[in-house]
Amino acid sequence: MNKLVEIVRKNRIGSVIVGIAILVLLIVAISLFRSPRFPDTIPSAEKSEIRDRAYQSRLKYFQQFSRYLRENHGGMLLAEAIDQQSPTGETFAGESNVYTFRQQYKFLNQPLLIDLSTEFSGKHQMQVEIRDLCRGQSRTTSCFEMDIKKADAVWIRVLLESPKSKKTTEPGKVVYKDRGETDRPEEKLPVPVGSAKLVIVIDDLGYQMDVFSNLVKLDYEITYSILPQLAYSQDTAEIATQAGRMVMLHLPMQPKDQSLFNPGPGALLIQDSSAQINAKMVLNLSTVPYALGVNNHMGSAYTQYAEGLDTMMRVLNENELFFLDSKTAPGDTAKRAAKKHSVTYLSRDIFLDNDKEEALIQKQLFKAVRLARKRGWAIAIGHPYPTTYAVLAKYLPELEAQSVVVTKLADLVN
Question: Which among 10, 58, 144, 188 is most buried, taking Cβ atoms within 10 Å?
């Protein structure tokens, strides 16, 4: 009997020892498989959204930032996002937990991209650093790496690229390779109720026909403002009218410094009498037939001269012409004179090409589009430069898809 009890007791002790050993092995196995050396799966965006509130806040910021870029980068299909990926945290050059987002665009305008990114980040108390990753490569390829910082630490990283480039990543490195067009469905931008109107006035015409001959072939309601008494003044007016385009008189006026700037023939001068102003207006209008309105050429001095403007506005009223203020000087003297004589008054919003560099003209065009979408209409003035023509020919076709209509100035007046 004693032997039987001793055997049972030994078996119990053995069972306890075996159980303890099994439990220890299980704890060790679990700890090993939960260590970084044995991740259960590659982390996904869905799991990060559930597990990581930091990821959610960064994703929300990126979505707001992305929407801001798309809607304000001219509001055109040029800047429509055609692909979006939101990977989880990545490590770059020793930086851990940097959330990186990638987005593809049909077009990226670097000066405007910098302005918009800085503006948006500043509103959210962030700092932004932008690097051009495609510098020195083909001008048709754009790719930028953007670090948005919070408390001097990289909070998110955004990779922007044109559709002709493709990103592959290695730790600490971003490489772009050429690829074909994407087959992914395009995300459409919200279109505002009604159509925004964009007026584009090309003035300083009449000296030559080269660029104008190309501009007038564009199938858009561009308004042409023509200087008087020049070799091609009347021909330009005739051709524009035959093409169904609106014509204006680009009326020369006295600038503040005539020693540096010559307004040209037919200019209204401060020393002119009322009779002289009337005579000049009659002659100027006769050399620019079909003109429906007038805008000033130069005139930084004359547009602040109430007495001369009073006589000029009287002539405009008699001829049922409106006045577009090119805004070459501050103040509302011209506006008050127009109101006094019941002349419709408008003023320029954007100069397209004070700088003739193509990228900067693009930037100004996109600013005008942004304003038109925000306010419902905008007026931009440009000049017959080859780069201005190139920008308009390239980007105006994108406007209709976003319900931005290029309209002649007379339609806006009406």
Answer: 58
